[in-house]
# Entry
Amino acid sequence: MAVKAAILGTGNIGTDLLIKIQRRSKLLEVGMFAGIDPNSDGIARAREMGVPTSAEGIRPILANSGIKIVFDATSAGAHMKHAPLLKEAGMVAVDLTPAAVGPYVVPAVDIDLKSIGEPNINMVTCGGQATIPMVFAVSRVAEVAYAETVTTIPSKSAGPGTRANIDEFTVTTARGVHMIGGAKKSKSIIILNPAEPPILNQHTIYTILESEPDREAITASVEAMVSTVQKYVPGYRLKYPPVFDGKKVTIMIEVEGAGDFLPKYAGNLDIMTSAALAAGEAIARKMVGQGNEGGSVA
# Structure
C-alpha cells in the first residue's frame, strides 16, 4: 500500500520530483501538488497526469488528513513558516530547501537513514548531496582538518529559488560538510556558469588531511562511495581519480541529470530530487512497517 505524499512548490524541483515519484515509486502516491501560482507549468503538467493540484499554498495540504509526507520544494524562508504547521498537523516534512530546520540527511552517507522518524528532515543542498559523500569517503579513512567545496551549476538550471537562497546554500552546505562529512573545518562556494551550451553540474572537493594520505585507501573509499551514490543518482561520476599533493586531496565530480523533466545538464536539481525520493521512500517503508529492506541505498 502506497503512502500518500504531497509536494509543496510547483517549480522545476517540485515538478521533477513529481515525475520521479509517479514513474519510479511503488511506495509513494502524490495526493496533492500545491503552490501559489495557478498558471505555473508544473500545475498544468500535474493536472495532465491526474494528480490533485492547488494554487492555495500549504493550506489544502494541511486540510488533507490522508497525507503523511510533505516534500517542501519552496524556499528557505517559506519552509521556516511551513515547518511548525506541518509538525502540528502530524505530517513528516522532507525539506528540499536550505532552511536546515531538521537534521541533515544524505542517503549515501547515512545508509540506514537514522534520522527517519524525525518530524522534519533536511536534504541539505544540491552541493551538499554531491560533495558531502566525497568528504565522508575521505574522512572515514583519514582525519580531515579542512574541506572546501566548489559547486558549479549552469545558469539555466538556477531558478528563482536557487538564486534567492545562495547565502543559505553556502552556509548549509558548509555545515553539512562538517557535521556529516567529518571535516573539522569547512567552506562551501557556489558558482553560476552562463556558458552556452550549458555545462554539466560539476563539483570540486578539496580536503587537507592531518597526516600523509594512504592513497590506495582513500581512492578505494572514494570509488566505493561513488558507486553508492549511483544507486539513486546514476549520472553521478568521478571526472578523474583523486589527485594527491602532499596532504591535500582533490576530487572532481560531475552530475548528469536523468532527464525525467529537466535537461540532463541540470544535475544539481536531479541530485536533490533523487535524494529526496530516496529519503521519502525510507520514511514510507517505516510507516508501513517494512524497515529499510529493499531501500534505494541499502
About this structure: Residues 3-123+271-287 form a domain with the Rossmann fold fold (CATH 3.40.50.720). DSSP finds nine helices and twelve strands in the chain. The mean pLDDT is 94. The first strand starts at residue 3 and ends at 8.
